Amino acid sequence: MENQELNINPFVLEEIMASDIKEVVADINKNIDDSDIKWSKGISGKNKYWLDKDNMIKLKDSIGNKVFSINIQVDGYKQKSIFNLIRTKRKKGDRIKPFVMEYEFENQQKYVQYLLNDSASKVFEGIVHTYSLKEFKKTLDFSKTGSAACGSAATNSGTSSGNSRNNTSSSTPGRPSAGTTSGSYAWASMGTTTMPLGSSTGNGGGGRVEVGEGYFGKPQTNQQKNSSVYGKSSDCPKGRVFIPINLKIPWKKIVIESEGEKIDPKEELKCFDEKKSGKITIYVRQPTENTEKVMGENQVGHVFIGLEQNGVKKHFGFYPPKGASDLGVGVGYTYDSELRDNSESLFHVSISTNIDATQMKKILNYAKNYPKEYQLQTYACTEFGIEMGNLAGLNLPKTTVKDSQTGGLLFKGRSPGKLGQEIRAMKSDSKNKVVKTKGKSPAKSKEKC
Length: 449
Prior knowledge:
Number of strands: 25
Radius of gyration: 26 Å
Largest sheet: 8 strands, mixed
Number of domains: 2
Shape: elongated
């Protein structure tokens, strides 16, 4: 079947949250009660596997069948696969227990390319694996013999390999070899459709979603040309289901919160005397407090500056423009930069030091002539904070970190999480003061000069 653009019919897609479908969630909970899979939000899961309760896709077909696709996050797994938990509500046919779909790409680079592709030509190329929910957690433990997969299907352009999830290999591209099985599965892409904007999550929704058609049982003759899969286990799904691929990942929904108002540093800092000493503080808000995580409940975190001199107090940080696309920031687009006020802003750790007049002059000059481009991976708030701190003699490290999902294909740069932990490991002395408990930066002073 050729990839084709879908119209509003026969599918309607909607991005929803767990709170919108309590009955479905209750049923899922019965099936995951004794497993390591738990509900969480975004990438802040505390278990090895977690279901992102704020990122669920509902598909409704023309006769009223509903399919819920929930993104499964995997802690510490350098992904080249998308994992979705699937729950169905069918108008006709037998009930299908919740199950897991894995969309495995040839390598991490193709995985990332698919994640970032938002065009009508998007089509999954690789191997589709189907698992019973209770067996899913075994799939990442490659030390185990045998396979937990119900079956695996290569797409038209996918290529089977010897380490596929059903432990098969084939000399025929696009078709895994058969083993001892109890039934046949098939999967074929139905094309892409556009997620409606203004979804119930409040995150804006939108974006292109690929829908596949799974034949869980004996595939129809015309589908055998596209893909073939061989299944097992009594808990494996049976029936014909349209399934949306839920690839909502943290890097495509980064939010850089523009907290305070935009400032003109030359105006903001005009009351500082570059011929006098003062004090500088580097504040770090970590993505997840007291961890090196690249993302968490505080998004990507933030690093900002505090300057003090004779009662004058100013706090500010380095940002993309307020209207910058969250998606664009997340995938590394370059934007014009700006400084914004960070008075009374949350931080988790900070380091302060007294500075002499020479250092004050350098710091003021750098702030007033700050770099004019913002790029999340090469120069963002962390780099700005490190540069300002090192002009004060703090010798802050410039450690590069990588996102755990892809080993750096989605993010490679400096992070508030890592910098925060490096500052936390430092000790206060006669010159520098390290604060390791969270708080808020002081209010902006109001002076005339």
